[in-house]
Amino acid sequence: MVRRVVGLSLVLVILLSLITGCSGSQKPADSAKPGTADKVKVTFWKHNQEPGNSVTRRLIAEYVKEHPNVEVTIDDSIPLSDYNSKLLVALSGGNGPDIFDLFDPSFPMFIQKGVIEPLDAKNLGFGSMDEVQKAYIPNALKPFEGSDGKVYALPIETNGWSMYINTRHFKEAGLDPVKDAPKTWADMAKVAQRLTKVENGKMVRAGFTWPLKLESGWYLLTFGPVLYGNGASILSNDDKGNEAAINSPKAVEALQIWYDMIYTQKTATPDFGTYTSNNPNVDFAEERLSMWMAGPWAVATLKGTPVEKNFAVIPVPSVNGKNRSVATNAWGWVVNSKADPKVKAEAWKLMAYLASKPEVWLKDAGYLQPRTSLMQSQVAKEFPYLDVFLDDMSHGRPRLRHVQYGEITASVVRALQNTMLKNVPPKQSLDAAADEINKILKSK
Amino acid sequence: MPRERIWGLAFLVPALLFFGAFSIYPMLYSFYISLFKYDLLSPKVYIGLENYRSLIGDPLFLNSLKVTLIYVFGASVPVWFLSLGLALLLNGGLRAKGLFRTLFFIPVVMSLVVVSMIWKQLYQPYGPVNQFLNTLLHTQIQADWTANKDLALPGLILVNIWKNLGYFMVIYLAGLQAIPLTVYEAARIDGAGAWAQFRYMTLPLLKPTTAFVMIVSIINAFNAFATIFVMTKGGPGDSTRVLSLLLYETAFDFLKMGRAAAISVVIFAIILVLTLLQLKLTKANHTS
Questions:
Q1: Pick from A274, A422, A443: CB nearest B124
Q2: Which of the two residues, B92 and A296, has the higher pLDDT score?
Q3: A155 preceded by cis ω (within 30°)?
């Protein structure tokens, strides 16, 4: 009898532990304030990136202190590489966060699927959407606009990808960092050749390289200025059409410029550098690379490195000295359209609070939030080369905006890699990409 | 039903529930959604076998299939011989064999992501792998293995072999230690030399172990994802885009869950056929 009771209890315990183990009890990454039943509970997701995480947590803690009726659960543990997939799975299962960050290429698809809510000017503390627009520099909210003309996010960071140069290397090579700063891609190749250093058959310093070992996003942000600057585009009708245009003669010329920089002018070897996506600026920071493209966020990553006192930022070169095109990328805060109306109202207020501190974001995280009020602030005046970044951003163009962004850009990146890393002629690579893209567009 | 059988079943229930919920159900659900057009955020649309039909003749899928087969062959066949060789060596009278066994087993317990990050550094243009090769072969290799069209796939295969060798060595060691010593004594009395003992005694008696090693190593290689995702993301171009990576991209970058599920079913079918074939061959050899 005793054995039977013990045995049965054991089976029950195992079964119960299994059931409770599978019940999906979620432990929040951080609860800013212990909650009571009448509090509005807001879940907040952010991709894992410092120093942005710390600033977010600090500002949310401040907000919760001032608004004790709100409890915010933050999850900022998901790395960027997994962020989109985890977000999609959570949203499809109805467990998505109430407020989360989203990067610009995702907007067309998220808007089309009705996953995110258009900005609510009233709850954001503005009289109208016109007032919201006026609070930001012109076109700053464009990356978050839907085809319906509505805006779906407030910017966390906006980057124009400018050119970082090593002024010490310039001087060493007898160049003046101001006078000799390259204005066209042809100048760029000539200057980079003079900066490149080869010792005993080894390239010990590269003048310039494209981010050939990084993710597709980097390819697009650095190929974009050459492609669009040369009057070409990925899709017909300046990316608004429904046909591939990536194999147009102008696009082939753009890829030829990319190819020649490495293979003809030999400003670097195809696989030069120790950079990784976790530390993309390492070669520039450690002075193995003289010129490199990155956004304002990179300034913070160069602090305490050998290049800290030896760098300058110059405008992105153009193809012909006239039509400058600068790639931009942006992250924005959005609100889940499926959230409870009461939660939504609080989420907008929280978002408004976070967006009202652009000086804090610039100073502590290096994130440039394009609010008009920021531009007159002391923090902005002290931020290195902000005038160059802003000037570049005035020529800015976001990456392709399309509901099939992921698939189309995968084809473009494959073509770029085939030419740059597998020596396939540019026309052949881009013809193959155009075929793929046309199939993708038809499969919609 | 006898009481013992009821108790037996009761104890099996937790494991069966777990297996059913986390293995059988997802597998069946994959089959199910492979018949739909599904992007996670909109309702599923039934399209029959269209996802399978679209895979046939798709150059991306066919390239991934080719890359996968090369990867699987490269990552599993050498392991069969190397792990057996190591097991034979470390089963003998070698000094400090315990230390060597531990050293070879360490990579097995390491996190795949950590392993990938370490090897990514080792494969840098001026990293230790190139330095070692340049010293040994008097060459001037300055390539980054993970970004080089000729070296990326062999580089990944090498990492897989290094990571899994210790595991299969331990399996072979267990197999070798299960062979009774009396069998060898009898063979020696009959005048069998070392080679004859290995060829006619050890190898045949290790057949079940060999079948296990072959099947599991092939399944592991087919399912390899983390190292490739971290080290090359399928590049350069499509040089290392194995099916598991294409599946992930199709699902989460292109939001084509139905098509991704169809790819997973194809992978499942290939592994199933190869496993059945190996089991049949092993059985046929055993009978003969």
A1: A274
A2: A296
A3: no
- Shortest alpha-carbon distance between residue B149 and chain A (Å): 6
Looking at residue A261, its amino acid is: M
pLDDT tens-digit map of A264-323: 999 998 888 888 777 889 999 999 999 999 998 888 889 899 999 999 999 999 998 888
SS3 call for B140: coil
Record: contact B142-A269, CB cut-off 8 A: yes
Taking CA atoms, what residue in A is nearest to B148?
A: A421
DSSP A315-347: PPPBSSSS---EEEEEEEEEEBTTS-HHHHHHH
A328 φ/ψ angles, rounded to the nearest 5 degrees: -125, 150
CB pair distance less than 8 Å for B252 and A274: no
Of A88, A271, A436, the CB nearest to B148: A271
Contact A88 B252 (CB under 8 A): yes
Position A435 scores a pLDDT of 95
Q: Which residues of B touch A203 (CB under 8 A)?
A: 142
What 3-state DSSP class applies to A73? strand
- Tokens 């400090």, located at residue: B96
Residue with tokens 């956004």: A295
Q: How far is CA A432 from CA A24, A426, A439, in A?
A: 45, 10, 11
**B4-23 residues touching A, CB cutoff 8 A:** 7, 10-11, 13-14, 17-18, 21
Q: What is the DSSP letter of A136?
A: B
Read off the pTM: 0.83
Which is it for the CA torsion A139, A141, A142, A145, positive or negative?
negative
pLDDT digits (tens, 9 = 90+) for A322-354: 888 999 889 999 999 999 999 999 999 999 999
Cα separations in angstroms, B45 against A441, B50, B104:
18, 11, 50
Task: Give whole-number Cα distances, B112 to A31, A278, B107, B124, B160, in Å.
Answer: 31, 17, 9, 19, 10
CB proximity B193 to A under 8 Å: no
Report the pLDDT value the prediction gives residue A274, as an integer from 0 to 100: 80
Nearest CA to CA, how far is B111 from chain A (Å)? 17
Candidates A15, A92, A436; nearest CB to B14: A15
